[in-house]
Amino acid sequence: MAKTNFQYEKRQKELEKKKKAEEKARRKLEAKNNPKPADGTEGDEPEADDAEVDADAAADGDAPSQPQ
Fold this sequence. Notes:
By secondary structure, this protein is mainly α. It is built from two helices and no strands.
């Protein structure tokens, strides 16, 4: 009967731990370099509230006038 290779399994677990630790460190570094605004929203994404207001205004016929 064949024996289980516990050293291989242990090494795989160690590699997975190392991979997770590196990913966590990378995310932490990204968060440090790109801090979020105080209100908790991302700076790159458009706010949903503004889009909602514009859509509501256009639906009511009160679209904001644009300079010509």
